[in-house]
Amino acid sequence: MTEHQARDYHPPHIVPVGTYVLVFLALMVGTAVTTWVAYIDLGAWNTVAALTIAVCKMFLVVLFFMHVKYSKGLTRIVIIGAFFWLAIMITLTCSDELTRHWEIVPQGWSAGALHIARLLFKGTV
Amino acid sequence: MSELAVHSAHPPGFAHQFETVEQQREAGHLGMWIFLATEILFFGGMFTAYVVYRSLHLPSFILGSHELLVRFGATNTAVLICSSLTMALAIRTAQTGGSKGTIIFWLLATMVLGAAFLGIKLRYEWYRDWVEGLIPGVSWLGGGTHTPGVKMFMCFYFFMTGLHALHMVVGLGILTVLVIMTARNRFSPEYYAPLEISGLYWHFVDIVWIFLFPLLYLIGGRYPGS
Question: Is the dihedral of CA B29, B32, B36, B37 positive or negative?
Answer without folding.
Answer: positive
